[in-house]
Specification:
about 200 residues, alpha+beta, Alpha-D-Glucose-1,6-Bisphosphate, Chain A, domain 4, eight-stranded antiparallel sheet
Length: about 200
């Protein structure tokens, strides 16, 4: 009986310690990674500004071969939207381009629906760097208390940052192998497309 009480006491202390550590975590988070891509900003912009092209470089696209994808709104640029529903690795969510500045910036509202609900901001900043393009991929969001508890055990910067690094590496491969003519990306204003895999 004494051993049981000791075990329960240790568990209580551990729980209190975790909750206490969670309370010290910041309310907001920022994750950012940068890469240099040997291609013109226009070529890189074409890959980022069109969700139909993300399957070639996004770090999450291959996690679920059966993932269902739905594209709505224009082909690319402002108001273009991409929703997905997949397995436990990808969950369910939606991305919508809220700002599209040619060859310079793409702002995205990122909405997670499952396995948790959260809305955050994702941005791609492109800047000429000699014959290359400096690409900065960032994400900003707000922590709930539950996510703060999660962060006691998992470093969000390392977790999301690793995906960003993989995505930028794959984006680099795609953009550097794309012909310069690929920079001509029709906006397809008003077009709507829906696909499922």
């Amino acid at each position: 009986m004494k051993i049981v009480k000791i075990i329960l006491l240790v568990i209580v202390i551990a729980v209190v310690a975790v909750l206490g550590l969670a309370a010290t975590k910041p309310d907001k988070y920022h994750v950012e990674r940068t890469a240099s891509i040997s291609a013109e900003p226009a070529v890189v912009f074409t890959q980022v500004n069109n969700f139909h092209r993300w399957d070639a470089w996004s770090p999450w696209e291959k996690l679920d071969p059966a993932m269902k994808r739905t594209f709505t709104g224009p082909e690319s640029g402002n108001d273009a939207s991409y929703a997905w529903v997949g397995n436990d690795k990808v969950g369910e969510g939606r991305m919508t381009i809220t700002e599209s500045q040619a060859d310079a910036h793409v702002g995205i509202r990122l909405e997670f629906i499952k396995p948790w609900t959260e809305t955050c901001q994702s941005d791609f900043a492109l800047a000429p760097e000699g014959d290359a393009t400096k690409v900065t991929w960032a994400m900003d969001g707000t922590h709930t208390y539950v996510s703060k508890i999660f962060c006691v055990f998992m470093d969000m910067d390392k977790m999301i940052g690793a995906d960003f690094e993989k995505g930028l590496t794959q984006l680099k491969t795609v953009a550097e192998s794309a012909p310069a003519a690929a920079s001509a990306d029709p906006t397809g204003a008003g077009a709507t497309a829906t696909t499922g895999k």
